[in-house]
Amino acid sequence: MFLKKQDPAALPASPGSQAERRRVASSGTFSVFGPDVTIHGNVEASVDLHVDGSVIGDIACASLVQGEGSRIEGEVKAQSARLAGTVEGRIDAVELVILKTARILGDVSYETLTIEQGAQVNGRFAPHGANLAAGNAQVDVAPLPGADSDQMLLPN
Question: A Pfam family for this UniProt protein (predicted)?
């Protein structure tokens, strides 16, 4: 009749990295656009944002997590972004992770960048402070220390 409330620490781990779950839990507030949601217009969020649907417009937020089947058509500006869907537009993030299911069509500006093997990116990369208008940025690619061989880190 009455259910005992479970301790969140006792629950099985859900998909996603532990760091991602800690960040969402520590901030206390986040917004989710489900797979059935399509937003036409710009989105500005002071909280973490999780997009599983479609956004046709620019996104500016502290932290963005993009689901595998989602689509963003516009510029993305975030302190932290973890992309798994399709993005058509410029991306500017301090910490950027592009997962193997991601499809990026646009220029990318970053401080730290991780790209999983299998991700598709059609655009130019430049660390913050570099000029993308000057042409393709030249970057060295090296395996992440202690990571799987399919993860690479582009230094800034």
Answer: Bactofilin
Q: Is the residue at 67 inside a domain?
A: yes
The dihedral through the CA atoms of 133, 93, 139, 128 has a sign that is positive
**62: which residues sit within 8 A by CB, 6+ positions away?**
27, 45, 46, 47, 48, 78, 79, 80
What is the pLDDT tens value at each position of the chain, 156 positions in all? 455 555 444 444 444 444 544 454 445 688 999 999 999 999 999 889 999 999 999 999 999 999 999 999 999 999 999 999 999 999 999 999 999 999 999 999 999 999 999 999 999 999 988 765 554 444 444 444 555 555 555 554
- CA 69/CA 89 separation, integer angstroms: 17
In a domain, 9, yes or no: no
What does the alpha-carbon distance between residue 54 and residue 72 come to, in Å, rounded to a whole number? 6
Print the domain residue range for 57.
28-129+140-154
